[in-house]
């Protein structure tokens, strides 16, 4: 057991994968060495071919020159005294650097040769017959002195008769040193190139390591797999975008929510392909965070959030997360009720606290009649308003909404009244009720704020009218503000707001998206209160 434990660290060390920079150095160096070897072999081959071709041309040129000499022609025709011609040809051989110059007669018997013992013997190599037939050529053959590159030229007499052949040769073994000397220079440069390649590989390895934060390939693969698994596990739809709207990452849940096939995940997409109606809005002011934004897309209401992606302190795109509103319906309803109840209690507490302070002061001053009168007025006003609401609005959710808005407006010194001709029954469809609450709540909030902005020149007042026919729900919201101007199309865009601050500019956009989702329409006009009048028509 002890021996096994001692071997485990060694085994781990042996099987431990090499780091990325080490792999890069090995790969780049190996590739450069392989390229250097192949390049060296190619250069050696080309150099050898070039030298062989050059030597062959030189041998053929010298042979042609020798074949036209008069003394050579005479020696072949009258071979009585060959010593003189041998001496002259030997001098010429040494002058041109050839290894041999051999002259043979018409039967290929040597009359001139560097080795006097071989004069008179048959020329060897088997490459002289074509020259004796009148051809000039270069050949490579193994002769009496060894393998050589030869230039073969026939010798013609005055009557144009072939009387012999001239063979000028350079031994291959004498050419190899020239090839090696030239190749050695290239080899030195190749080694220098390999050395530079190793340094470049080290530099590239360091740069790559820094670019991937020191992670190794197996770690990167694991992180990618984990990221993909996490994105496809969460119940929210996730869309990661470039600043220009190009989709970087899209999980399966986003495809399900938007009714898109999962096969588009690996395609080149833009936000216009996924959310064409809202792409322009979502790509505006990308540093601004949006949380819990409600919109209508893919025939359903979605709750969407947008966050800016920051990479090394710089904006590098946006991240969208979305879920269908029905998944959050129960929690949202409970939270909305709690918030509305808390807001109502806060407003009533603040209002009644002021009234109690006033009543207490009047009692202390002994003005009991005035205190009783204020108590009666307060009781009559609140009870009358609530009684009117309960009589006109049979739906408890809408009635509660209007009660809450009534107290909010009262705290802000705005008179909110319900048209006495209003009449509305219970809205049976829950999805439509939610949209009506959102639409009416946003319109009343905007009307209250518009009335407050014009309160310096006129009394702040908001009037709400609700009604219905057998086929349609009707809502009118009027205010004493300054109106909505002449350009009615721009006010329903997400970026529009008549107020300052980052939290404004999406109220009327929510009204539009909810109206679109339930097929409703909106008309804008002027109210007899001197402000704007917004009329909503929603088919049942």
In one word, what is the shape? rod-shaped
Strand share of the residues? Answer: 15-25%
Largest sheet: 5 strands, antiparallel
- The overall strand count is 15
Distance between the termini: 82 Å
* SSE sequence, one letter per element: HHHHEEHEEEHHEEHHHEEEHHHEHEEHEE
Mean pLDDT: 80
H/I helix tally = 15
Helical coverage, percent range: 40-55%
Strand order, largest beta sheet: 2-1-5-4-3
How would you describe this structure to a colleague?
It is a single chain. The chain has 540 residues and is an alpha+beta fold. 50% of the residues lie in helices and 21% in strands. The strands form three sheets. A five-stranded antiparallel beta sheet has the order 2-1-5-4-3. The protein is rod-shaped, with a radius of gyration of 52 Å.
Secondary structure blueprint with pairings:
Blueprint: H1 2-15, H2 20-67, H3 70-77, H4 83-96, E1 100-105, E2 110-112, H5 129-132, E3 137-143, E4 146-156, E5 162-171, H6 172-211, H7 217-233, E6 237-241, E7 247-250, H8 252-257, H9 271-274, H10 279-282, E8 290-297, E9 300-311, E10 314-324, H11 329-364, H12 368-392, H13 396-411, E11 415-418, H14 430-453, E12 461-468, E13 472-479, H15 507-517, E14 521-526, E15 532-539
Parallel strand pairs: 11-12
Antiparallel strand pairs: 1-2, 1-5, 3-4, 4-5, 6-7, 6-10, 8-9, 9-10, 12-13, 13-15, 14-15
Helix pairs in contact: 2-6, 11-12, 11-13, 12-13, 13-14, 14-15
């Amino acid at each position: 057991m002890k021996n096994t434990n001692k071997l485990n660290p060694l085994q781990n060390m042996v099987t431990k994968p090499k780091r990325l920079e080490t792999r890069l150095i090995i790969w780049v160096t190996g590739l450069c060495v392989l390229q250097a070897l192949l390049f060296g072999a190619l250069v050696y081959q080309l150099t050898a071919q070039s030298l062989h071709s050059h030597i062959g041309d030189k041998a053929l040129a010298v042979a042609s020159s020798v074949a036209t000499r008069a003394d050579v022609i005479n020696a072949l025709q009258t071979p009585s005294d060959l010593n003189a011609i041998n001496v002259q040809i030997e001098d010429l051989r040494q002058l041109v650097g050839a290894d041999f110059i051999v002259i043979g007669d018409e039967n290929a018997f040597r009359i001139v040769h560097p080795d006097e013992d071989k004069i008179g013997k048959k020329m060897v190599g088997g490459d002289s017959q074509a020259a004796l037939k009148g051809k000039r050529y270069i050949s490579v053959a193994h002769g009496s002195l060894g393998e050589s590159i030869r230039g073969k030229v026939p010798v013609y007499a005055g009557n144009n008769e072939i009387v012999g052949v001239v063979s000028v040769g350079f031994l291959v073994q004498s050419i190899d040193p020239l090839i090696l000397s030239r190749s050695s220079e290239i080899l030195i440069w190749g080694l220098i190139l390999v050395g530079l390649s190793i340094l470049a590989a080290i530099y590239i390895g360091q740069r790559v390591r820094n670019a991937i934060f020191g992670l190794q390939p197996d770690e990167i693969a694991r992180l990618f797999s984990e990221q993909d698994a996490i994105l496809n596990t969460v119940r929210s739809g996730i869309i990661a975008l470039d600043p220009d709207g190009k989709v970087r990452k899209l999980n399966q849940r986003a495809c399900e929510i938007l009714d898109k096939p999962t096969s588009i995940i690996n395609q080149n997409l833009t936000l216009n392909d996924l959310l064409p109606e809202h792409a322009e809005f979502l790509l505006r002011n990308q540093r601004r965070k949006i949380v819990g934004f409600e919109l209508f897309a893919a025939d359903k209401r979605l709750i969407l959030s947008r966050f800016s992606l920051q990479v090394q302190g710089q904006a590098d795109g946006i991240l969208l997360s979305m879920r269908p509103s029905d998944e959050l319906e129960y929690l949202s309803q409970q939270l909305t009720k709690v918030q509305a109840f808390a807001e109502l209690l806060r407003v009533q507490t603040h209002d009644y606290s002021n009234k109690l302070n006033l009543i207490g002061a009047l009692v202390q001053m002994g003005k009991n009649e005035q205190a009783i009168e204020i108590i009666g007025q307060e009781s009559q006003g609140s009870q009358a308003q609530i009684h009117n609401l309960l009589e006109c609005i049979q739906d408890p959710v809408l009635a509660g909404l209007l009660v809450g808005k009534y107290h909010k407006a009262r705290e802000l010194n705005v008179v909110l009244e319900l048209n006495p001709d209003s009449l509305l029954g219970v809205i049976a469809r829950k999805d439509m009720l939610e949209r009506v609450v959102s639409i009416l709540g946003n319109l009343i909030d905007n009307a209250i704020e518009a009335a407050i902005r014009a309160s310096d020149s006129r009394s702040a007042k908001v009037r709400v009218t609700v009604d219905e026919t057998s086929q349609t729900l009707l809502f009118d919201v009027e205010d004493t503000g300054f109106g909505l101007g002449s350009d009615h199309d721009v006010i329903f865009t997400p970026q529009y707001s008549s107020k300052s601050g980052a939290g404004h500019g999406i109220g009327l956009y929510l009204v539009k998206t909810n109206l679109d989702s339930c097929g409703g329409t909106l008309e804008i006009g002027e109210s007899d209160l001197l402000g704007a009048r917004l009329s909503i028509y929603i088919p049942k």
